[in-house]
Amino acid sequence: MNTFLENQNWRYATKKFDATKKITTEDLNTLKEAIRLSTSSYGLQPYKIIIVENPELRAQLQVAAYGQAQVVDASHLIVFANEMNFGEEGIVNFSKNMSETRGIPLESIQGYVEYMKSNIVNLSEETRNIWSAKQTYLALGNLLNVAAELKIDTTPMEGFVPAQVNEILGLDKLGLNATLLATLGYRHDEDATQHYKKVRKSNEELFITL
After folding, report:
1. In a domain, 161, yes or no
2. Which end of the chain is more exposed for a tag (fewer CB within 10 A), N or C?
3. Boundaries of each Nitroreductase domain copy (predicted)?
4. What is the count of structural domains for the chain?
5. Is residue 14 within 8 Å of 153, Cβ to Cβ?
6. What is the structure's pLDDT at 2?
7. Could you list the residue range(s) of the whole structural domain that residue 147 is in?
8. Is 40 exposed, middle or buried (0-12, 13-18, 19+ CB in 10 A)?
């Protein structure tokens, strides 16, 4: 646990990446698996993860991200996109996956399936979209934590225009909406931000015990 906390103190939102350093395939696969194993509401994972390697697309996305250099300089760029209007179809697909993965008949989990439907399908489309967007933040948390363990630098980003990202990547046609960007790679020696002390609330300010 001490190592985990040390790595949390080590990590920061990297402002300048070393464009010459690339993440290995092995480490990238570890990061992808960390995202895949992330917790989500009911285990539904109502989102897609887009890994953008094409340099031309990344140059376009930099414009949509207000010119932030991390988008093009980092080793990898990941886009988290929630599924719009997630509902019955997604729940049915999840139930089939559960049945196959656990080797159990669909009939045995029908009660759980109906429970999920009653809690999700009856919500307004706007509420469901807000809910699915929130799920991407859980996946981002896993990514940030595992990247720190691997000593891979990250920058989570909300500073972009979703509509532009959606258009550039064709997400609208896939029923998706960009909620978060994350750049991954290795800090540049010239990034002064790495030397700043981490600023957080004290325990007394942050925690309330009742």
Report:
1. yes
2. C
3. 10-186
4. 1
5. yes
6. 85
7. 2-84+124-206
8. middle
- What pLDDT score was predicted for residue 1? 61
Q: Decide if 116 is inside a domain.
A: no
CA–CA separation, 170 and 181 (whole Å): 16
Distance, in Å, from the CA atom of 36 to the CA atom of 202, rounded to the nearest integer, reads 33
Q: Which residues of the chain have pLDDT under 70?
A: 1
Task: Quote the radius of gyration of the chain (alpha carbons, Å).
Answer: 19
What is the identity of the amino acid at 143?
L
Report the length, in residues, of the chain.
210
Structural domain includes residue 10: yes
Could you report the per-residue pLDDT of 27-63, keeping only the tens digit for each? Answer: 999 999 999 999 999 999 999 999 999 999 999 999 9
Distances in whole angstroms, Cα of residue 207 to Cα of each of 138, 155, 201: 21, 26, 9
Give the helix ranges, DSSP H, for 49-188.
55-64, 70-73, 88-102, 110-120, 125-149, 162-169
Is 50 within a domain? yes
Q: State the CATH number of the domain containing residue 30.
A: 3.40.109.10
Q: Would you say 81 and 107 are in contact if contact means Cβ atoms under 8 Å apart?
A: no
